[in-house]
Amino acid sequence: MEGPNRRLPPKPPSRPDRVSLRRYVKLFRQDLLSAQPARLYRAWMAEFRTPFFRSYLMNQPELVKMVLKDRPDDFPKSDRVGEGLRPLLGNSVFLTNGETWKRQRRIIDPAFEGGRLKDTFPAMWAAAEACVARLAPYAGGTLEIEAETSHAAADVIFRTLFSIPIEHEVAAQVFDEFRIYQRSQPVLNLAAFVPLPRWMPRFFRRDTKRSARIIRRLITGLTDARRQEIAAGTAPDDLATKIMTTADPQTGDTFDTAEMVDQVAIFFLAGHETSASALAWTLYLMALYPEWQERLAEEARALDAGADFAVMSKLKLSRDTFREALRLYPPVPMMVREAACPVQARDREVPKGAQVVLSPWHLHRHERLWDRPDAFDPTRWGTENGRTCAREAYIPFSAGARVCTGAGFAMVEGPLLLSMILRHYRVARVEGRDPVPVAHLTVRSKEGIWLQLERRV
Predict the structure, then answer these.
(1) Are 322 and 282 in contact, with CB atoms under 8 Å apart?
(2) Does the pTM of the predicted model rise above 0.85?
(3) Residue 31, SS3?
């Protein structure tokens, strides 16, 4: 596939192998991805040691498996991950550990079980149709597609969670505030890697905490209203109702309002920001490789039969293309854990308290694991190398006990939206405006992803 593809998808430059801590901090603040050295695309394990901290990046599949699947309790989420996100996410399932986290998952997981995906499909379909309609004014011109995929993904969340469209007054306010928040706060604050003293600035922009307060206030209003509907027996059968009425099978407790607000905040962050990133990059890849775009558009004719969940089994190319976009541009580029005890990893002793970094970005492009790691090739998933790497070196949703609850949800939403858009529109590159990947809340483009849009006849 490399010959017909002609060009490789955009990849950020790597920094020089050795830089001062001051230079690293400056690079990190600008972009998490280009702050890393090129050797990480080949290394099984790398140690970062400074006078202030020590961290270990682990790329070897056996080490990734140890951290995520074999010994997850020995590698809890680092408390410092919450340095940047706690103002918005509170004690959500994304940040908690131990018994608190296990209790939260026991209540949340049933809402996302297989049968529930089918139940939420009509809401996803309606959001996809609304997205197609919103794109109509851009036909024949150019647009910044990240803004549109953010709108569509937020619409999916509100329709499936609270049975309201994005045009609903409260939903629209949450969305507007979140757009401010997402550009002001990286998903991995510098403090996730560097144990900064309390007096040192955390590099938040001034409006970050303000936006978090407004978002949480709005979500609290939606949650209180839903609680009243549940009590009155008038609540719709959506994800919010399912979660709020599910009792912990061990204790019988349900989420109180404050706990539910925490969880809704992470559903919105994880289900909106990450999906928007993945869909935007997939559409750009379709513009970069028009031969693939036409194959997906042809496959998308299956949607003409209407909103039947069974159509998803016919969107195989769309699913493989979306998987490939998640490989090349994993929405969450790095995950940080903390060693709860001393650990032997390869020939190194990882001390208790050290930061352990898993990088989907580097793992998915690892030169010793993947065939042509920087190339776009949706057919790779049918090869022996692709199947092996899918099991051992592909973690866009994490893996093990802490695998993203909404992974199955995302793998329906992404291919559906992609197919629906390509069924109605053709996308093309804007010459001279190819995107440069950077890490904000997720892997986004430095100056947006610009595409030309043309309506299909």
Answers:
(1) yes
(2) yes
(3) coil
Q: Distance between CA 161 and CA 156 in Å, rounded?
A: 8
Neighbouring CB atoms inside 10 A of 401's CB total 12
Contact between residue 155 and residue 123 where contact means Cβ atoms under 8 Å apart: no
**Helix (H), strand (E) at residue 176:** helix 169-184
Determine how many CB atoms are found less than 10 A away from the CB of residue 169. 9
φ, ψ (nearest 5 deg) of residue 47: -110, 135
What are the C-alpha distances in Å from 120 to residues 115, 239, 301, 410?
Answer: 9, 8, 22, 12
Contact 452, 430 (CB under 8 A): yes
Spell out the per-residue pLDDT of the chain, length 457, in tens.
Answer: 444 446 899 998 887 667 676 766 666 666 778 878 899 999 999 998 766 667 899 999 999 999 999 999 999 987 766 666 777 888 888 888 899 999 999 999 998 886 788 999 999 999 999 999 999 999 999 999 999 999 999 999 999 999 999 999 999 999 888 877 766 655 444 445 555 544 444 445 566 778 888 999 999 999 999 999 999 999 999 999 999 999 999 999 999 999 999 999 888 877 788 899 999 999 999 999 999 999 999 999 999 999 999 999 999 999 999 999 999 999 999 888 999 999 999 989 999 999 899 999 999 999 999 999 999 999 999 999 999 999 999 999 999 999 998 899 999 999 999 999 999 999 999 999 999 998 866 788 888 999 999 999 8
Cβ pair 226, 235 in contact under 8 A: yes
> What is the CA angle 10-451-437, rounded to 5?
25
Output the DSSP codes for 356-414: EEE-HHHHTT-TTTSSSTTS--GGGGGSHHHHHHHHHS--BTB-GGG--TTHHHHHHHH
